[in-house]
Design brief:
Blueprint lengths: L7 H12 L15 E5 L5 E6 L2 E12 L10 E8 L14 H14 L11 E3 L3 E13 L4 H15 L1 E2 L2 E4 L2 E4 L8 E2 L7 E8 L4 E4 L3 H6 L2 E7 L5 E7 L6 H35 L5 H7 L17 H11 L10 E2 L7 E2 L9 H34 L4 E2 L8 E2 L7 H16 L1 H14 L1
Parallel strand pairs: 4-6
Antiparallel strand pairs: 1-2, 2-3, 3-6, 5-6, 7-10, 8-9, 11-12, 11-13, 13-14, 15-16, 17-18
Helix pairs in contact: 2-3, 8-10, 9-10
Length: 437
């Protein structure tokens, strides 16, 4: 997965801030981020936090056969792992250009500088030597991985202790920590890498760049140095041309930073040694009650809660009543809604028309029912035969031809013809029949 590129606005903002000697996290040009060193429960386990960049280093050892050209020297092996947990841009099981560069720089910084006595790792010349393996895992990536990796690796090597070994003839016996105390490594000096980033072809310089600053930089200079001001390795990347004065200036700044970091590592080692001697908890067991397992935990901020209620009452009393801007809801006619006053609307016109039509139809139905009841009553009294049809298409009243009067026949014919003409005419005929009855 490729990393998300920066937009042009973000790039211009970062470069403009660097020109004004301002950084995103509020640091100055030559300031390091907050550095924290914590050791694990086992010897040789070290966690380093450089800002939000988090690195873990673990040292292990085993007995192996030495190299043919160096039978009296032990073996140093370094391995850096960039897991997708640290950044989505890292891919599992694939060596990227950044991984190869970090691994080579770490080997130059620690192994080629002869900071460890390799000959003391020999057990039997030409047969058995100790192989020291340093595994560096990137837990979170926020820039300047090389500096964090070098600090974690050298601190883990200083904290590591190998098992004691006994030789009897051709037999080699490795004693556990309960049988014999483990032996620390022989370390001559502690080389530490310091990174410098250059912007706009070397015009501006920053130390300890973060991840966003690394994206917009033009070049990078890494100087590995110890507290004796001895340069162990130096590497430049990015293809920029640096002057002699710039390199000398960076070396002077690096000497100051290396001395501060070396002192911090020494204090962390002393504190861990004192805690183990006192029998207190250390490493993972100590981090559990203190809740330091999470990588990006923010420090707690104290908040005063003494006079909150009194302040709230004062604010409520001083606050003025908010004016009512919304107009009330006006209902001029039941079933009609109106917001505001003096507004014309036609919401209820169609409903009024429908109500009128429903009233007319209900009146017609009532009249037809009354006519039917009256005719049936007359039939019972006079014995006439009457047939009434309530269908919508026609409404015919047929009287018995033997008893019916000619006038009734004329009215029946008029009612039939009037129904064909329309409902209004039929209604008039019904009214006449009512009067006659």
């Amino acid at each position: 997965m490729k990393e998300t590129p920066l937009s042009n606005c973000e790039r211009d903002f970062l470069l403009k801030a660097i020109e004004e000697k301002k950084r995103l996290d509020g640091r100055q040009t030559y300031d390091y981020r907050k550095l924290k060193i914590v050791f694990g429960t086992d010897f040789g386990c070290c966690f380093v936090e450089l800002g939000k960049t988090r690195v873990m280093a673990q040292v292990s050892c085993e007995l192996v056969a030495p190299k043919e050209n160096r039978p009296n020297e032990g073996i140093m092996f370094f391995n850096i792992e960039l897991s997708p947990m640290a950044s989505p841009a890292f891919e599992q099981g694939r060596q990227s250009e950044l991984l190869v560069k970090l691994n080579r720089q770490l080997e130059r910084c620690l192994r080629n500088s002869k900071c460890i006595d390799i000959e003391s790792l020999c057990v039997v010349s030409g047969e058995k030597v100790w192989q020291i393996r340093v595994d560096v895992h990137m837990l979170n990536h926020d820039g300047n991985l090389m500096d964090a990796a070098s600090i974690a690796a050298i601190a883990a090597l200083c904290h590591f202790k190998r098992p004691d070994v006994g030789i009897q003839g051709n037999e080699v016996t490795v004693y556990s920590a309960e049988e014999r105390d483990p032996i620390p490594l022989s370390i001559y000096h502690m080389p530490i890498s310091v990174s410098f980033s250059f912007f706009q072809q070397g015009t501006y310089l920053l130390i300890d760049p973060c991840e966003r600053e690394e994206r917009v930089m033009d070049g990078l200079l890494m100087i590995a140095m110890n507290k004796h001001r001895e340069i162990c390795s130096i590497q430049s990347s990015g293809g920029i041309m640096l002057l002699k004065e710039q390199v000398m200036r960076c070396s002077k700044i690096a000497s100051v930073k290396v001395s501060e970091i070396t002192e911090l590592i020494s204090k962390a080692l002393e504190n861990d040694k004192a805690a183990r001697k006192a029998g207190g908890r250390c490493g993972f067991a100590e981090s559990m009650p203190q809740e330091r397992i999470t990588a990006l935990k923010k420090d707690e901020t104290a908040v005063g809660m003494t006079d909150v209620s009194q302040r709230a009452d004062d604010i409520i009393q001083k606050a003025a009543a908010t004016p009512q801007t919304n107009q009330p809801l006006v209902v001029p006619v039941p079933g009609v809604g109106q917001v505001g006053q003096g507004l014309q609307n036609s919401w209820g016109i169609e409903e009024d028309e429908q109500d009128a039509e429903e009233e007319i139809s209900s009146d017609e139905q009532d009249d037809s029912k009354e006519t039917k009841m009256e005719v049936e009553q007359n039939k019972r009294e006079q014995g006439d035969v009457v047939e009434i049809s309530d269908s919508e298409e026609e409404e015919v009243v047929i009287l018995d031809p033997e008893t019916a009067d000619p006038k009734d026949k004329e009215e029946t014919f008029q009612s039939t013809s009037s129904h064909q003409k329309g409902p209004a005419a039929s209604k008039k005929v019904r009214q006449k029949m009512k009067r006659r009855v």
